[in-house]
Design brief:
The protein is an alpha+beta fold. The protein is built from 25 helices and eleven strands. The strands form four sheets. Strands 2-3-5-4 form a four-stranded mixed sheet. It has a three-stranded mixed sheet with strand order 6-8-7, with helices on one face. It has a two-stranded antiparallel ribbon with strand order 1-11.
Amino acid sequence: MSYRCLSVVSCLVISAALLFSQAKPEADLKFDIKAIDPSADPCSDFYQFACGGWLARNPIPHDRSSWAVYQQMRDLNQKRVMEILEQAEQEAKSQDERKVGDYYAACSDEKTIEKKDLDPLHAELERIGAIKNSDDLAEAVAHLHTLGSDALFATYSDQKLGDATKVIAVLDQSMLNLPDPSYYLSDDLENRKNREEYRAHLEKEFVLLGKNPQQAAESAEDVLRIETALARASLTPVERRDRKAWYHEMRLADLQKLAPAFPWQRYFAAIGVDPGGDLNVSVPKYTQTVDELVAKAPISTWKNYLRWELVRLATPAMPSRFREAEFDFYGKALRGVKEQKSRPQQCEELTNRDLGEIIGKVYAERYFSPQTKQHVLDMVARLRKAMQQDFEESSWMSPATKAEALKKLELLHAMIGYPDHWRDYSGLEIRRGDALGNAFRGQQFEFRRVMTKIGKPVDRGEFYELVQGVEGYHDNPLNVIVFTAGILQPPFFDPRMGDAVNLGLAGAVIGHEMSHAFDDKGHLFDGEGNMRNWWTPEDSKNYDQRAACFVRQYSSYTAVDDVKVNGQLTLGENIADNGGLQLAWLGFQSLPSQHAAVVDGYTPEQRFFLGWSQWRCVTATEKTAKEWARRDNHSPGRWRVNGVVSNMAAFAQAYHCKAGDAMVNKERCRIW
């Protein structure tokens, strides 16, 4: 399991939005002027003006907790991927495609899964049942880690912060089985209810494993005791925004002194990693808590905790009663979803997880043209030039800091569509009729791939997201922006549309990712990807003052009910949203005058802002909206629109807004 998406990567997927009604044909996936609510005043609430028509005709589908443009694009890509899977299942053209077809066929074969029942899990349950001491525990945890779990703690590889050319092992906190630590620790009514529902869910899962109700209740209590202790020691989502807060280099001997009760040598031997070099023990206090639990908790408690971790891991390939129980809690109770996804959808997601680059290669060949790639690269070049201009004209940075910023911008690499090279799956065995075995072997293959990076040169041409996914991100240690073939489709990027919409939408999101290289965390990395302070003290002070403006602005907004937006948690994304649209505007202004035609009654300038705003139209269940407010580092869609445009004089001019209007901030926040 990798924490890149939670740390140095800006992921579009969490709060991306949707403009269009459900189930439209592929040809209609494009910018839609009917998404507008013409009765709304754009100077009072631009989000309602830009998205009101869409919101009125887009209820949340019963199998979703939210609905957004990302979802519609993902649905289209899922349809395309399903065609690839079904063709591979019937008539594979290569060994790799045969693996895809066999994996999907095994997952879809519910009759065989039901007939086998728990038999495929028996060996793993016996392994856990045989634990007698801490050495056995370490080996059992290690084995679960190779299967894709982050039981007790997470292990992966990542770049060294002080030397981005090196890859080291990382020991990090677990993701936990509730969304964030507050779900275990907060005493408010809603979280107390969530915990009681979680306890009931755990009891149900243990009954499904064969325990009687009393045993199941005791087992659930064991799990909650372990997970609550881990939650207390975990960094919160806000704390994890500080990259230094979860980076602590040490050697194995230091780790053993820090946490002597856990047999680290046995653990590393079991996962096949030589811990002789530097380690990032991300959160020392968390590791100490793990050690205290190992020293004090009975072996019977550990067995129940690991059984639960195993079931969570195995559920997607288990009999339907386990999948239904999982959905009842994580879908219905926790996020307000009404219906479970179909089995073909579930199997598409699972096949993507374990064989994603095989599918992505076929997807890119079918749906991503060289012309689209070149169009996007041209847009990146235009945005890069705009950012260079912005740096050079900056009145608050000294020449020394400007020189460093320009150097980093020059070194910023863009990967568009697909990775520089494709993964080799020849070492992965896939069998028809063995859904759970395929899932476990797929995760073992991925774990080994990640861990074998340790001590080797950094691969700067790798994608961390699926090519067929609707994804874009920035990575600080790699100093790279990435856009997948799956997102570079209409309506996100549409050659049929004019420059105003494409720059307001795709251009602003490209600018968003570029701005992440210089957001409140990104600006602490240099052009080579090393965490290094290249700011003069005065420039650093100026930066912090400008960033504080965004914290004040967004903290004043309401996310849902009485829950406010967390301006500190969302700071990096707010800086990137504002910087991205400013850069796209600079790029738009550099276009020749023949692009000034009025279309559908809106000027190019007005359409530019509509392109940005309609990409953020989103609706979510109340429970999901509250969960996002607690842990999502993106602001809600309404404030990703209104918060940004209210900082831009160009918007006020385009829509003839006046001082005193809600969309004209008295204190306009801006860094880039």
